[in-house]
């Protein structure tokens, strides 16, 4: 990391910074997500040493590596030494052949949220670091993400009723946490998949020294995430206010002509919010942009348009009203025609 950015970091010792970062969450019951790596091990030990209202630890065994169970049991022994209850959460059932990392991430958060609800935790704490944030921003840059994606991982987000996912270590370089563990003789595990270049994150990690040499440090990428989050929050607030005006009577009926008068960035978000409120699933930004690019000319021409997107039927009528409704089920394909019938 560049000398200028490193010098700008707070001079307080890592121990003091850890205590300050954890304090707002430890006043309520917390579930700590601990894999056994240096980051989550530092989270567990620092939280256990601080005043707290109640802690529990969970490790997810994704069943993807033979040694994963033994690693989870190692975390369980460490937690027991600290006097903390521990649970191993297993990802059961068939695993997909493709998109395994995304599927594992979704399963991990589902299992952790379910366990947090079971024990009545108010916060689920993970040990994502500054380095993780930088890698997330790089991955989303590579995908051409907009401000919402470039905002990276938010410090907090709701996971369900009464449960907040918090990332208190998001401003900590990984090297600081490794040094903190090693300075106290705290053992931690190394996950070999972190260096497995079948995965994009590992490939980007290999490129990080070259990028940092050009000034693209973790600190600057994290700063980009903060700025993108700031702008994304502002645009979302403006879009929510606009949606309230465009769909005053029914969230599934929008005033298309008023939508067309909005700046494109706001119109895109209004459409996204309306689709979500109407029960639409998740969708890629590129497809949402294409949908808006078809809707706007239809509105200008007073033409009708029907498109299916995110499980919804999006219909524009000649009067400029956009209606959202559940998409009809797809018709089953009939039997194939046989060639050469007499």
From TrEMBL:
One Gene Ontology MF term: tRNA(Ile)-lysidine synthase activity
Entry keywords, A to Z: ATP-binding, Cytoplasm, Ligase, Nucleotide-binding, tRNA processing
Enzyme category, top tier: ligase
Domain of life: Bacteria
Occurrences of domain tRNA(Ile)-lysidine/2-thiocytidine synthase N-terminal (ranges): 31-206
Compartment(s) where it occurs, according to its Swiss-Prot or TrEMBL record: Cytoplasm
GO CC, alphabetical: cytoplasm
UniProt record similarity statement: Belongs to the tRNA(Ile)-lysidine synthase family.
Domain remark in the UniProt entry: The N-terminal region contains the highly conserved SGGXDS motif, predicted to be a P-loop motif involved in ATP binding.
Functional description taken from the UniProt entry: Ligates lysine onto the cytidine present at position 34 of the AUA codon-specific tRNA(Ile) that contains the anticodon CAU, in an ATP-dependent manner. Cytidine is converted to lysidine, thus changing the amino acid specificity of the tRNA from methionine to isoleucine.
Protein name (record): tRNA(Ile)-lysidine synthase
Native source organism of the sequence: Methylobacterium dankookense
